[in-house]
C-alpha cells in the first residue's frame, strides 16, 4: 500500500516563502525595532517638556560659566555718619593771669602767715620784712597782695634774707585757667577764634572737657614753623589745676552726614582718576568716579559720585574691573 503524507500548512516552505531560519528571526527583529524606537527623538506632543529640559541645561551651563569668572568681594552699604577732621597736639594748663610779688626793701623776712594753696584777697598781708640794720631803729615793711587769687609759690621761709630781685610770692587767678600750645603753620588757615577743642587730661582719665581757641599769636616761630595759641575752658572744673598736662583735639572740620568708606576702597589712577567700585542690582562691579573730602584715621569721605544705600566694594576691589560678576562674602549684610 502506498502511504500518502499529510501536509501541514506552514510546515514546509513553498515557492517564494522564507525558510525555517528566517521565521526564527522575527522575534529578534521585533525586539531590535522596539529598542531603536525608545532611542529615537521626541514624538509629537512631547516637544515642550524636552524643550524646557534643553533650556535648563543651557542655563546650568551659563551659570557654571558665570561662576568660573565670578570674584568674591566684601561690600559696605553707604549710610550717613559723623566724620571729623582734627589736629591732636599737647598743651599746658596755666592760670589765666598771675603776678609775682617783690619786696620794696631788702631785709630779714620776719613774718609769713600764708602757705602755698591759700586763697588771698587784694591788699591782704603776705609778709613782713625788717629792713633795719644793726644799730638802727627797728622798723617793719609790709607786703600785700596786689590781686585776689591763690598763692602758688612761696620761695622763702621766715628768717630768710630778702632782696629786691627775687619775688617773695607768686599769686595766680586759678578760677580762670587757659591752655597754651603751638599749632603748625600749615593748619592756621583752617583755625580761628572760637574753633571747638576737646581736652583730655592724664590726671582725669576717661573724661573729656570742652574748650575753644581764644587767641592766636600774630607772629610765627621761624624755627619751629608754629604759631602760639591760647585756649580757654567753656566750663570751670575745680579738679583741673595749673600745670596739668593736656591733650587737645582741635576740630578742623565736621561733616554730620558724611558717606564714609575705608581709604583702601578708593582707587587713584594717574589716567582714570579717583574711583570706587559699586555693586549693581545684577551683582556686577561698576567703576564709579568719585570726589573725596575728609580723609582721616583710615577713612575717606565720598562727596560726589555715589549715593546713600549703594554698595561699595571694600575688599577685592583690586581684582575686579567694570562689569565683573561678583559674589558677596557670606553673611555680609552691611
Give a structural overview.
The protein has 334 residues and is mainly beta. The chain has 3 domains: 71-82 and 257-328, conserved putative lor/sdh protein from methanococcus maripaludis s2 fold; 87-93 and 175-255, Elongation Factor Tu (Ef-tu), domain 3 (Beta Barrel); 99-172, RNA polymerase II/Efflux pump adaptor protein, barrel-sandwich hybrid domain (OB fold (Dihydrolipoamide Acetyltransferase, E2P)). It contains 3 helices and 22 strands. Strands 1, 16, 17, 18, 21 and 22 form a 6-stranded mixed beta sheet that branches. The chain has a 6-stranded antiparallel barrel with strand order 2-11-14-13-12-15. Strands 3-10-8-5 form a 4-stranded antiparallel beta sheet, with no helix packed on it. A hairpin with a 3-residue loop joins strand 16 and strand 17 (273-279). Mean pLDDT is 83; it is low at 1-17, 35-40 and 43-47. Residues 98-164 form the Multidrug resistance protein MdtA-like barrel-sandwich hybrid domain. Residues 59-68 have a biased composition (Basic and acidic residues).
Amino acid at each position: 500500500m502506498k502511504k500518502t503524507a499529510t501536509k501541514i500548512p506552514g510546515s514546509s516552505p513553498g515557492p517564494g516563502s522564507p525558510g525555517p531560519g528566517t521565521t526564527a528571526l522575527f522575534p529578534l527583529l521585533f525586539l531590535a525595532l522596539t529598542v531603536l524606537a525608545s532611542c529615537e527623538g521626541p514624538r509629537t506632543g512631547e516637544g515642550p517638556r524636552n524643550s524646557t529640559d534643553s533650556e535648563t541645561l543651557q542655563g546650568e551651563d551659563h551659570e557654571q560659566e558665570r561662576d568660573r569668572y565670578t570674584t568674591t568681594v566684601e561690600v559696605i552699604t553707604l549710610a550717613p555718619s559723623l566724620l571729623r577732621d582734627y589736629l591732636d597736639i599737647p598743651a599746658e594748663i596755666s592760670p589765666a593771669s598771675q603776678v609775682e610779688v617783690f619786696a620794696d626793701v631788702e631785709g630779714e623776712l620776719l613774718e609769713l602767715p600764708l602757705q602755698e594753696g591759700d586763697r588771698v584777697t587784694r591788699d591782704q598781708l603776705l609778709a613782713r620784712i625788717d629792713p633795719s640794720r644793726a644799730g638802727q631803729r627797728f622798723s617793719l615793711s609790709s607786703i600785700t597782695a596786689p590781686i585776689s587769687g591763690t598763692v602758688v609759690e612761696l620761695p622763702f621761709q621766715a628768717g630768710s634774707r630778702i632782696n629786691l630781685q627775687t619775688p617773695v610770692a607768686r599769686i595766680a587767678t586759678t578760677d580762670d585757667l587757659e591752655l597754651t600750645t603751638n599749632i603748625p603753620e600749615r593748619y592756621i588757615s583752617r583755625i580761628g577764634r572760637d574753633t571747638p577743642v576737646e581736652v583730655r587730661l592724664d590726671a582725669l582719665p576717661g573724661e573729656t572737657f570742652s574748650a575753644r581757641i581764644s587767641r592766636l599769636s600774630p607772629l610765627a616761630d621761624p624755627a619751629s614753623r608754629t604759631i602760639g595759641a591760647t585756649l580757654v575752658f567753656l566750663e570751670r572744673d575745680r579738679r583741673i589745676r595749673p600745670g596739668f598736662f593736656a591733650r587737645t583735639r582741635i576740630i578742623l572740620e565736621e561733616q554730620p552726614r558724611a558717606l564714609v568708606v575705608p581709604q583702601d576702597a578708593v582707587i587713584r589712577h594717574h589716567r582714570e582718576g579717583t574711583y570706587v567700585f559699586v555693586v549693581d542690582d545684577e551683582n556686577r562691579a561698576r567703576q564709579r568716579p568719585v570726589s573725596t573730602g575728609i580723609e582721616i584715621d583710615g577713612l575717606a569721605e565720598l562727596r560726589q559720585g555715589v549715593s546713600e544705600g549703594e554698595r561699595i566694594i571694600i575688599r577685592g576691589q583690586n581684582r575686579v574691573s567694570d562689569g565683573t560678576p561678583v559674589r558677596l562674602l557670606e553673611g555680609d549684610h552691611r
